[in-house]
Specification:
The complex is a heterodimer. Helix content of chain A is 0%, strand content 54%. By secondary structure, chain A is an all-beta fold. Chain B is an all-beta fold. At the A-B interface, strand 5 of A face strand 5 and strand 10 of B.
Amino acid sequence: DAGVIQSPRHEVTEMGQEVTLRCKLISGHNSLFWYRQTMMRGLELLIYFNNNVPIDDSGMPEDRFSAKMPNASFSTLKIQPSEPRDSAVYFCASSSGGRPGELFFGEGSRLTVL
Amino acid sequence: QQQVKQSPQSLIVQKGGISIINCAYENTAFDYFPWYQQFPGKGPALLIAIRPDVSEKKEGRFTISFNKSAKQFSLHIMDSQPGDSATYFCAARDDKIIFGKGTRLHILP
């Protein structure tokens, strides 16, 4: 079975540009989590969805960040406009069931904003 | 406010030694405590997990010790091997999973 698939794996962009990160969940999973990883802050939860509905977006840094889940298997995280401090590795993870148990992570999208 | 505090930030252990990573939490609503292992360029993967009604869980060379009254838990890696070199994250769940900042473990050959 395919795992969580993220794209792009690497993105280099200039400050002010729009960035869209994509995530395909494992088939049958109903919860989706977006995390951001940096050396300083570790793994931070940005937002999570359950059955396509955003449950908690308190970790989203500011209005420049938005996430959508247009269907049960796909999600996007958008940053507009991007800033150098957004540089990080962004992971999505999926799980099954009502409360998250084991999280299955993708390989991440490494974002560099110049 | 950091909900799950992890230490040390980095750790170097000789091959065959015991690696110990510690975590502490405040939220008594947490009911599930997993540990994740991450290799460079990869996403974290579940290593072992424990629920607070159990004081210890062992899987092979990996053991979680859990102290509910102290609100602390730790990961012990026995007979550490170079292949164990990775970043380890403790985590805790209420309705979502919150991670500690991670420990970079290096096992000397």
